[in-house]
UniProtKB/TrEMBL annotation:
Pfam families: Sheath_initiator. InterPro entries: Sheath_initiator. This is Bacteriophage protein.
């Protein structure tokens, strides 16, 4: 397909997987693209010291009252430029919790369609 993606797998707790050689990597697979999307969504704007302009604008556009018209475009803007993502074919978010947002996405990747369910918490970064 031309991308030649190799992404280290993460375990259930979010730690990188080691000890299984090539079995510790997603190689040109939709699950790897899904993992990249989750990682991009979980990075807070300004959190990465090498590029403080990178990240999801949680405090500006996502969490809090009165942000219903802002969170979907902000989250889509984080997902769509992810390597391997071609389109978001379904987007649904539950903002009924005060400090959390649950997002269900279906993304069309270079390797097929994959559903994602992500709970993004404002408690993770003092939000």
């Amino acid at each position: 397909m031309g991308l030649n993606m190799r992404i280290r797998k993460e375990g259930a707790e979010g730690d990188m997987c080691f000890g299984n050689s090539e079995g510790d990597f997603w190689r040109d697979q939709r699950e790897g693209v899904g993992q990249l999307v989750k990682n991009r969504l979980n990075l807070w704007l300004g959190e990465w010291f090498l590029d403080t302009q990178e990240g999801t604008p949680w405090q500006l556009n996502v969490l809090g009252k009165g942000r219903q018209t802002l969170y979907e475009p902000a989250l889509r803007a984080r997902v769509l430029p992810t390597p391997g993502v071609r389109a978001i074919t379904a987007f649904q978010a539950d903002t009924s919790q005060i400090r959390d947002i649950s997002v269900n996405l279906t993304i069309n990747t270079a390797y097929g369609v994959t559903p994602l369910a992500v709970v993004l918490s404002g408690q993770n970064n003092g939000g």
